Structures are given as structure tokens and as C-alpha cells.
Amino acid sequence: MTAQLNGKVAFINGGSRGIGAATARRLARDGATVAIGYLSSAIAAEALVEEIKTSGGQAFAIKADASDPAGLTQAIDSVAERFGRLDILVNNAGVLVTGLLEDFSLEDFDRTIAVNVRAVFVASKAAARHMKEGGRIINIGSTNGQRMPFAGGAVYAMSKSALIGLVKGLARDLGPRGITINNVAPGPVDTDMNPENSEFGAGLHDLMAIRRHGKADEIAGMVSYLASPEAAFVTGADLLIDGGFAA
User: Fold this and answer.
1) Structural domains of the chain, with CATH
2) 156 catalytic residue (yes or no)
3) Per annotation, catalytic residue among 140, 156, 208, 239
4) pTM of the complete model
């Protein structure tokens, strides 16, 4: 374990699987106490907590529905009240719904915006109330916010583009308080949602400079940097980690 986040408390929304789980492991390894937010995967979240504790870290699981503003706010408030502080927020919960314009329902549109955009705003607002100087807000965006090379991805791409504008604006709001906010924008990452060994996954490599999927641990490494004191001068950024997908 390293000590760069010793004494810090982190909340990860969507922290039980994939990039979220890798981030929980990394921040705990860096010394933070990690609250792992989950919606339906309680078993996975508790297993991750035990894994982190076995490795010498501190973690616990808490249910948090990104589509429910009141419930999400309550979860964040409860973490801050439990420890008397909240230093790091990672907004990782997200949905991916695709469909051509003529087929895309308003229900799917509203759900995409609620989880991918509104929840980031709600969580950031709730967390910022508890943060002091040195606070960190990190959103998991997507390279698709800058490049969407397929039909049917317009609404998802729009939701991730919205985060670029959000962090630029909130960087101005939060900067005077010494709080930073940034996006980490992955390209294809080898998770259960987008496995590298699938036919679709392999086809993505033709669009990339580095012809492979990223690893969840690589994304977590970028989050770790942004959460650290070394990144105190980085804010309002959309940081691509996509193997040249958007190049």
C-alpha cells in the first residue's frame, strides 16, 4: 500500500464491478477509506469489500441509485457523516443504450440523461457540500464524447459530451475552494460490458492507434493520479485514455 491518500474518504458511485471495482481497489491501496456504491450487485460489492480488507485496506458497501436524486444524495451524506469528511467522489455509474433516431424511445433518452448526466451533477453538488480544500471530483466519461464512429450511439455520445461542459463550468465554481473536478474518458476497456474477446470488441481495434482494449487497472491509475495531491493544478479537464481511439 502507498500513503498518498492516507486519511482520505472516497465515495465511488457504481463501484462494484469493472472500472469502478478497479478504482476501489486502487484508492484503497493508496490509503483511502472507500465507500463502494452499488445498485443491484450487493453480493459483488460485499465480495469486493472483503477482498480490499483482506489486502489491508478499508472499505464498505452502500446502496446508491444513480437515477434517484434523493437517494443518491442521502448515500453521499451518510458517508460524510459516518467519517466526518468526504474527500474524493468518483462518478462511475452509467448506462449505454443504443438505437437509431427513429427507434430511440423517450424513456431510454430520459434514463440515459438521468444516470449519465443528472446523477453526476446531483452527486457533485452533494459531495461538494462536505469537501474542504483538496477535494477531488472525478467523472468516468468516455472517448465517445469526442468521437462516435457508429450509427445508433448519438444519445450516449451526447451524454458523455455533456460531462465535458459540466466539468469546465464546475471547475470555475469549485476552484476558489481548492476543489478540482475532471473527467477520465476511456476508450474500449476489457470488462464484462465490453469484452475484448467479443466480435464487436475485436472490431474496435481497427479504429485505434494502440490496437487493444484498455485494462480497468489502467483507468484506475488515471483516477488515482487525479485524486492525489500531485494533481492539485489539474481541473476542468477531459483526459482521454483510449489508445488513440479519438486521435
Assistant:
1) 9-239 (3.40.50.720)
2) yes
3) 156
4) 0.96
